[in-house]
Predict the 3D structure of the following.
Amino acid sequence: MTTPTTDFEKIRRMRRENPKMRERDLANTLEVSEADLVAAECGLGARRIEVRFDEIFKGLADVGEVLALTRNESAVHEKPGVYDRFIPGKGAAMMLGAQIDTRMFPAVWKHGFAVEKTAEDGSVKKSLQFFDKHGDAVHKIHTREATDMAAWDALVESLVAGDQAPVLSPAAVPAEKAERTPADPSKAPELRERWQAMTDTHQFHGMLRELELHRLDALAMTGEERAWKLQSDAVVTMLHKAAETAVPIMCFVGSRGCIQIHTGPVSRIAAMGPWINIMDPGFHLHLRTDHIVEVWAVRKPCDAGHVTSIEAYDADGTLVIQFFGERKEGLDELPEWRTLVEELPRATENETVLEPA
């Protein structure tokens, strides 16, 4: 997609000529990565920063309220709050604040920028933006009215890199689509046995890796008492029912390097074109419903019975978004959530499901 000789002058010109075009759309038009788009502004509205992971997230605790944003191709998850209760880790780090709750994978974070933009009203909007080696956004942090701007500016100054060339270095490496090999039905008995033996939902990923199973194939093979396919509009139905009944939920949206979580009730659900949106004061979600091809209800054993999730997948079989009922570690999940999920319409018979062996 991109090379070290990216034409940053062309990018800058296109930005000036299309000031209202969304950055991801502009990047696609130019056939560059979003990180290339930001890098082209170095020396103008952007500065490259060093991705000193622990320093960044420890320093953010002093800046007060900001907006955390994590997205993938189909979902955007936005949470205002303070970056507090940072738990460092080389393989995985966490932010366990009351508002901002993330699981982060530092090795994925390759490029960082401090960005300033002048809005139509003349105000200056500031953000920190992080990208992976493919030039895709991992996580973004935006200032708000309540942000301590002196602390923000001091943090940025401490991170500014020496290299401010308006091109991405190293160049973005286009992501390759993972090949999904046909499932081996003979693995179904072992899958079911190991699934039932789980004591923690986090064991699920290791189980799939060891059995060399795609997530969707595992759902289809495990049996309907553990996973069942829902109608493709089940997520929208669930959100409206959760808002109507005030059942608090957990909403997970992930990029390659960050998973961002909302926990609590939702109330303002609004559709706009292909998007379904949550527009609450403490949480915004924007989800492309036309990207959702499969939706599953899933039960996994844990230390307190089992937990029930709703998982939505796109045409490539990639997990777009996950929902759970609000639950504290060591406690059973809300019975109201289980009832809500169990009452959602199941997929019709003509929707393809891999039958268990």
User: Anything to note?
Assistant: The chain has ten helices and 18 strands.
